[in-house]
Design goal:
The chain is mainly alpha-helical. Helices cover 39% and strands 6% of the residues. The protein contains three helices and two strands, in the order H-E-E-H-H. The N and C termini lie far apart (31 Å).
Amino acid sequence: KAEEVLKAYRPAYLGIDIGRLLLHAELCQQIVENNPEAPEEAWASLIPFPQLELDPALVRGDEPELDDQ
């Protein structure tokens, strides 16, 4: 579900590369699909933790969170 919401924020939002985040979600889905028999405790080691890197160059400037209200 989150992927559909995130797509509206591409290519970037608040300095986060949304395309990269969506690629990570796709990778996670593939891992889950390829390991249907994996026990619940295995997911922490099978699925890589996403690395969110803030890049000031990716701040668009129109993000409502940046309003000086």
